[in-house]
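Q: My collaborator sent me two sequences in one message, no labels, and asked for predicted structures for both. Can we handle them in order? The first one she listed is below.
A: Yes, handling them in the order given. First sequence, followed by its structure tokens:
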Amino acid sequence: MIMLPRVVFSLVVFCSGLSTIYGQSSRSAEIVSPKAYKAPVIVEDQGLQAILSLTIDSTLQIYRDKGLKAEEIAATLIDVSDPKQFKAASVRGDARIYPASVVKMFYMAALERQLEDGKVKISPELARGLHDMIVDSSNEATQYILDVVTGTSSGAELPAKQFDAWQYKRNRVNRWFASMAYSNINVNQKTFCEDAYGIEQQSRKYNGENRNALTTNATARLLAEIVTGNIAPAPRTAAMMTLLKRDPFTGTADDQAHSFTAKALIEEKLTDAKIWSKAGWTSKARHDAAYIELADGAKFVLVIFTENHANETNIIPGIAKVILTAMKK
């Protein structure tokens, strides 16, 4: 039997402890859906497709003089009245688009799954970060949440081998959604008020080739899975719904509860309607993912992404107004 000096033995024990802690961020901390999880059944509905296509075509005509092009807008509509089979329609629903803050909804779902699985423990600070990421759309909170979910952190650029190991962990959320048959998306980057530096820029591949990307189809599916309780057990989806809940009829701030899709509810005076949403906006992008319940029982998800027209604040609510009228029972 080889006897290690006490100092060396202590170092071995210490490093072993570190491997246990950081080992959690590899295989044992993978985000895994419950064995009972089944992807939702989503079928194209010709009636919904006609409504959405005509609405988008009309919007393109209305904003033609302002340069709105067909390739600068995408939308998906899902009727979730029957949770056993969603009816859906889309216009450029599979187009990969930079999602801005809409990606935060995907990180929220990933964190809730980790909490449910016991691989992450809730704390007051984690709860504060989750709240601020969704309710206030804080980029700093998002950076923290993504670190927790993936076991990574920002810092200096790394040599290729070390970077590959880091990037594998950072892709944890991507692997989870891929395991549930989400496709054509990339959800592995932090959001910033200014720009990414160091390893974060290295992860983006410097010219942005690895930036976040979502489709309106994938975004609408996730929101539909949240509101119908398919993505997680009831307590987790209830927690997510609480964070996404908006009240358009209180306050006057230009934010998620008063602009975007919610603005249509205000202008149509639909005080008995309810809305849950996550918006995203930058100097070039203006997006919204919304779930709406009308007083007559209609329940639907509407996701609209627009590019290069971030200052056109009436495009999204204008589309939403038409859809609201069409979806009334």
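Q: And the one she listed second?
A: Here it is, processed independently of the first:
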Amino acid sequence: MKYRRLGKTDLELSEIGFGTADNAGLMVKGSEREQLDAIAAAIEAGVNYFETSPSFGRGVAETNLGKAFKALGVRPHVGTMVEILPDGFDDIAVAIETALDGSLERLGLDGIDTLIVHNPPRKARDPNEPTWQPVTFEDLMGPGLTAFERCKRAGKARYFGFATEHCDPETVNRLLDTGSFHHVNVWYNVVNPSAARRLPSGVRFGKDYPDYGQILERARANGVGVAAFRVLSGGALSDPVIANGAAGRHPNAGGSYSRNPQLFQPEIDRSRALAFLKTSARSLPQAAYAFALANPGVTTLVGGFSDAAQMRELLGASDVPPLTPNELARIDGVYATNFGLT
């Protein structure tokens, strides 16, 4: 296992972390034995960063992660997200502190390493947003930082950050430029690398393919650590899904793609255009991880796992051959033709 420093902090994190989202599902739907085996194998392999959220299985992932840590007698670095619910916007600082207290109770910990606001930063709040109501620049710079400082003084959190799924990149870049944050979660993968680079004009951005406006590069320029998520494009960059579509998802997989498979289809359609990255020396998921790890602005990958076998496969991604110049050129050709989609 290789390690990378989280921005300007003193944390050295394994470049492959352990995500716990219900999209992959191991820490929500897997058996206790499966969970223990996977976490024990991850620790043995050198994984030292685990990231979770009360949104993953409505607290189930945090509870199961805490039980596993206790059973195994381990305390790796841990990050958890806090979601500001609609009724929490009257007092954002209290909402963050209350959410963190609930997470700590479920995890069985006195404190965590990174406190991450799950709500996406945008220019304005939107009470009609069907998932997480956005937070504004002022929300995070005002009561958000106030909450963190109180949590830090209480020994409940060491570092502060935010997630960026379906964010407004301009607002994110403003936040990163303040120097007030240590950590940012970034949607970054070979299907959509817009957080790190400008894409060819052939790419069609839209609701199912957002433009992340090079926020990863802005984080790097400001010394902010980056946890990359959705590295497998929600699981689309895998042989079973490439072959069978949404029906090829693992039995443990859940989340919105299970509730609404039609939301998953755009990821599948684009991922199929990149299936050539599988070679005799590396699997398609390993190629996807190798692509993300090649970016020096990435601190750690926090994709989730569906079972221990998948986890072991991905832990080998650090040692597979990197993508070749010819492969990278071919990827650019895929972007330029909008993945061959009409």
